[in-house]
């Protein structure tokens, strides 16, 4: 699915100011409540990214919900900002009247229903009504979900799990231990494994090194698929910046001509995913720019160059030429230990990369993070090693992986298997206040009706209350994430369906099931 550009929402500046004024007192009260706890933690720790996150985690599962305004760190494209801008730009009432009166809802006839009012969202986050509530007050979860999940649109095999993230209590389960094809919900496991292995501060670094006495310049791939050659890097590592820094370093050495090679040996094994050539994924290599895309897209399916590493090196040579460095291309080579590093550029921290991967369902980034997890775990950085490393890291966290099979990091491989139970366990672990380094797994989940693969969904349902990772393959529809229910509880859910014949009908049923959880106050 191609994710629509969100930049036009930024035009809602004046209305955003008015909305900010309205919610400022609410946010101030919420911030006041957690500030002492954050301050106490800050006094005892060094200022690393995960420790700032740990401070935020003392607000309990408030940050774990991460609905709309609580998401962070910000995506480099401004996507999180766009969520707020869109809500303001619509200027419609939500579940409560925002001052227009009963006679003027501000909603055009036939238009999608507005996102839930700020009060309901903040209550779910623990911002206006104290701690997240755990006391149920509604119908039995089975009475609500059973009729929905028996819909023929979900095919002959399906499974579901719903857990209260505050208490750990399972509210609903059917087929929870049955391994099914997870599709892109696999990325939740990849995210948890990568953050566990590498930590949220880890960055992916691309280098330019000069071999002594040979005049050979080697562009060394650091396994960063977000490396960009575009003029506006948007906070990502820039190939243009690397070229400028490299040219400056060469000039200081009096070097104006080099032989250019490129090194992709960070990864091992086949670069071709089992699905073969596909617009959902470039060849998996340690060196690429803009994920090998041949158009100006930043996410979703797109035509790819056949050899992303060679194309990145060709682009790098051209950029060096703009700075007066002449190059002769040699091809692939391995940089020696004696090579001098001339320049480097690094990706955003892993916390931001995980959010990007989940929000945009970025397959290239998922496969890269799986390989980095393998390297950090002492496994070969190929498909097999990455699969073994993901399993080992989940087991390290005490998660039960019985029935789970990983064959890639993205979920494009139909041989992957996960259980509904494991998916909700992953979300529960990510919400654990004792594991703040995993919080990006929750904040990166697309927001219903606002971001990523859920941008165009839930227009008439639980927009803003559901955050979930989608999964779609032929005959497979999955959905796993979190939802704030009417009592302010934060729930984790996982729905998997196989043998579906109408993907849109199956998707609709799964969305209705998540919406039902938001409205029922289930026990």
From TrEMBL:
Keywords: Carboxypeptidase, Hydrolase, Protease. Its EC number is 3.4.16.4. The lineage of its organism: Bacteria, Bacillati, Actinomycetota, Actinomycetes, Kitasatosporales. SUPFAM superfamilies: beta-lactamase/transpeptidase-like (SSF56601). GO terms for biological process: peptidoglycan metabolic process; proteolysis. This is D-alanyl-D-alanine carboxypeptidase/D-alanyl-D-alanine-endopeptidase. Residues 81-101 have a biased composition (Basic and acidic residues). Residues 74-123 are annotated as: Disordered. It comes from Streptomyces griseicoloratus. Residues 106-120 have a biased composition (Low complexity). Belongs to the peptidase S13 family. GO terms for molecular function: serine-type D-Ala-D-Ala carboxypeptidase activity.
